[in-house]
């Protein structure tokens, strides 16, 4: 079809000048050959970037989630959360086509709720990405500790992760860092499959008692407390909470009309992997499963798998650091020629943004002793808030008025679902936040490490 053969003409109109082609984008303004081409991500590269915003070492928390909820409820929750997040992400693509000027979730907030919506969602997504960056740096330090048998102070490893992430995240366009997403996905996938196979052939998990007979005590159904259940569900939501990153990904696609194709491939692959890996590892390890589950295999497999996974852990940090930096960068320079020109202002602003986000993430990751629980709190509070409620409002914003004039059954069902999504997201946000706070209070009483701790964090 002609519509599929051309880049969305409403979002990028090309004209010819004497020297070079000029593109006019609704977000970035005039794009020339002399500056960065922000609209240069194909649909295949989009799949990699989408998957990398969600698929990381967090997949190895799935067995622990299944242990909390039970195998069958756990699988059902994965399917439910995966389906809900797919719908939310689909709405982003449709909203972007209708409103080409939207770059981030804050732009959508301004369209729906004015200046207040813009600032609330803008501040929220920036804080969320900073904590995600910190989590990525900490995950990388775990991998470095595991591979090196705690070769040096953990705070040093976090600093190494921060420096490496800053260097690659400072590449200006998603089109030029999409290759890192492919490398990261391949490394994480190979590491995950290695551990999945290892737990299936070993006699017992490394965390199980070494003496006496041992048999997996996996449960089809569990009876968790309210806080334990919603802590597990919040962790699962966090595994799918790359949703805010889908806004800038859509904005940098060459042809945003292919967004849905990339989304379905991404969500299908991620959900299938989550269910397969979580089920197999939990079946063989039962309640003795470690979190992350890499610790459930032998010391050798743990070191090898972490070594393979390390590039993937760094890439996870690179991608979210790029998102956070690009949000601030676009917010500062939007509407000026410096956004797409290789000027001193352009480079100083861009590198200033990436450096600021890197330092902020490093300080939070290393300076807060109960960082893991704090990330759970941010995931429950902001991850849910950024992934569910705004998308329900976005669909209603685009379809409510026209649908009321000529109501159909489809419109009534989708309107009801969008309203339910707002209510459900709010409930999950409140319940998950409460559970995370309870966990933080308990952890603060038992915390033994301090800021910039040198203690080994790899569970070795």
From TrEMBL:
PANTHER family: AMINO ACID TRANSPORTER, AMINO ACID TRANSPORTER (EUROFUNG). Keywords: Membrane, Transmembrane, Transmembrane helix. Belongs to the amino acid/polyamine transporter 2 family. It is found in: Membrane. It holds the Pfam family Aa_trans. This is Transmembrane amino acid transporter protein-domain-containing protein. It is a multi-pass membrane protein. Its main location: membrane. The lineage of its organism: Eukaryota, Fungi, Dikarya, Ascomycota, Pezizomycotina. Residues 41-437 form the Amino acid transporter transmembrane domain. The chain crosses the membrane at residues 71-92, 120-142, 148-169, 181-201, 229-251, 263-284, 304-324, 344-365, 377-397, 409-434.
